[in-house]
Amino acid sequence: MQDQSLEKTIRINMLFDFYQTLLTEKQQTFLRCYYHDDFSLGEIATEFDISRQAVFEHIKRAEHMLEEYELKLSLLGKHNRNRELMDQLQLEIEKVPEEYRQTITKLLDQLNRLE
Question: Do the beta carbons of residue 26 and residue 61 sit within 8 Å?
Answer without folding.
Answer: no
